[in-house]
Amino acid sequence: MLFLVEEPISEENLKKVARDFDGYIKVVVDVEKEILTAGGKRHFDGEQILLQKGSKQSDLWGGGLDLETGEVDYDSMINLRPNQNNTSREVLDESIRSIITEIIHKLLR
User: Fold this and answer.
1) In terms of domain of life, where is this protein from (predicted)?
2) C-alpha to C-alpha distance for 101 and 82, rounded to whole angstroms
């Protein structure tokens, strides 16, 4: 199940998005609009929803949240962006990581 999350998610919907990967939630975060998509099997799907909602590609970053440990990761194929000096699946810029974490904690906790 894939949700567009623009305000803190309900406990019921959080459980729904966590079902895809048994407690792990894939997310795509718009660091400018401070919204995200949660759930689904591929970051690409969440990315497409945000692009249709008017997000800019350069503002979208993929990662995930492990609900059991609370750990946030920053790994996704959509993060490969040599033109933005991100030559890895991991988000390399610590300031962007910080924003991603803040938005995830605000909307998914």
Assistant:
1) Bacteria
2) 22
